[in-house]
Amino acid sequence: DLGGRWALVVGAGRVGRRKLEKILRAGARVRLVEPNPAEEIELLASQGRIELWPSFTQTLLAGVSLVFAASDDRETNRKVAQAARERGVWVNVADEPESGDFTLPAVVEQGDFRLAVSTGGGSPALAARTAARLRTMFGPEYGRLTRLLAAVRPLVLAGGLPPAAREEIFRGLAESEELRGHLARHELAAAREAVERVLTPLDLNLPPDFTFDDDLI
């Protein structure tokens, strides 16, 4: 959970920008070191979304939770990694993954539904290729299904059913190809009926005010 925590990114080339985008989406506060920032980077700084610095100094490590050494210069990355380790801060080294403390997986994101593909830093290209294939297999309907199941779960848990019955409902909803199909086509009324067909045999029903709309799915 990087929400509100400081992260330091050194380098805003292709790799650095990719890491920057990920940690901004994760809610981190970012210090970015880039001597020749592109216009889009300067815009982020002017909007207050990042702190922009022209060069790396160890003072930038103060209060930082994670460091990403992603410059185009290997010596700079090594210098950053060493300084981070001396302070006990975990560091990711773009051009030498094995010399860092952690690697970043390729991630397939459909809302709260996420799949991570990792090669332990051995082949980011293979991880990215695999993630691209997974995106064709797990489309936006999986994000909608995740939000729907999260909304239904409290109702089932409060229904007084024995554990085996609850498990049957959760498994039935998660494995329902019919439900996923309706969500993929955004057929909300049909999706509600599919959910009720799973709940009704176990004497559970959706409350009348449980609406299937864009806010839910």
Features:
217 residues; alpha/beta; 5-stranded parallel β-sheet; two-stranded antiparallel sheet; 44% helix
What does this entry look like structurally?
- The chain is an alpha/beta fold and 217 residues long.
- It contains eight helices and seven strands, in the order E-H-E-H-E-E-H-E-E-E-H-H-H-H-H.
- Helix 2 (39-46) links the parallel strand 2 (29-33) and strand 3.
- The longest helix has 17 residues, at 141-157.
- It is elongated.
- It starts with 5 loop residues before the first strand and ends in an 18-residue tail after the last helix.
- The model has no long low-confidence stretch (mean pLDDT 92).
Give a concise summary.
The protein is of the alpha/beta class and 217 residues long. It contains eight helices and seven strands; from the N terminus they run βαβαββαβββααααα.
Computed structural class: alpha/beta
- Mean pLDDT equals 92
Strand content: 15-25%
How many separate helices? 8
Q: What is the fold's blueprint, element by element?
A:
Blueprint: E1 6-10, H1 14-25, E2 29-33, H2 39-46, E3 50-53, E4 64-69, H3 74-86, E5 90-93, E6 106-110, E7 113-117, H4 124-137, H5 141-157, H6 163-174, H7 177-184, H8 188-199
Parallel strand pairs: 1-2, 1-4, 2-3, 4-5
Antiparallel strand pairs: 6-7
Helix pairs in contact: 5-6, 5-7, 7-8
